[in-house]
Amino acid sequence: MSESTVREHGVESRESETESDSQHQQSERSTCPECDGRLAADERRGERVCQECGLVVSEDEIDHGPEWRAYDSKERDQKSRVGAPTTKMMHDKGLSTNIGWQNKDAYGNSLSSRQREKMKRLRTWNERFRTRDHSERNLKQALGEMERMGSALGLAEEVRETASVIYRRALEEELLPGRSIEGVATAALYAAARQMSRPRSISEVAAVSRVDEAEFTRAYRYINRELGLAVEPADPLQFLDRVLDGLDLGEETRRCARDLLRDARGTGVFNGKSPVGLAAAAVYAAGQLTGEQPTQDAVGDAAGVSSVTIRNRYTELLAVAEDDSPGDSSAESTDGASAA
To answer: Is pTM beyond 0.70 here?
Structure first.
């Protein structure tokens, strides 16, 4: 064996030993040395404790947080030495500089008339530089619309962030020509809500949008097809709580409505049907079964659907419930036994 071959073999063996040592150290750091339980970090005490036996594996760890304390948000903002985190909800991701609207200096004193005119001109030019071309102005307007609609619909920040990403993709792939900014922004927000399992009905979104329902649904179908969005069909169970919140019904009716929808899942009843209508029909059917008997008009007003939709879906849900009832299955087994 040549000297170079021996040297290469030695290097490879040392590298394998180093990798095995690092893997062994990593496993030791993540498991308890006594019982091999999972370790949890207690940031308040600076310790790492086993969740199984309670052994304190390490203590007095380094705190990488700030060295100061703050007892409210105002004090935290005053002591913080960094800016706000970047966000997709702003067209420049929050990296640009803003000039405050207060005409005061650093000491709180009012500016002179000449300084106020100067600051006004600086604000104007700062706004112009922040939106230097039509695409940035387009994005700024769309993000403002999504923020307004998301707040009106009660959508979380993560849903609005996802909607802004969808709109940015549509803007980069030049899907906006021939469509309004508000229509595509509404479609992006509707798609993001469904992706994040926070769906809203088409009528709810159209009620807070500046465009009509037909325009935004066309825009939604277009960007969904062109961008290949992974949007699952909406589950009626996701709308059930919002329908029930508008009605004064007992817990038994709520539980019965959930059971009706779970029994109908996978039977084909959901295919091509409005999930809001199915949720409303489940509430009405559950009320009839439990004896509370809410009216179709009351359930329709709470869900935002017509009484005709409730009647059509109501009979379908009850048919599935009757097919899955224990009495039917026992009768079938009895008939089968007699036939045998």
So the answer is: no
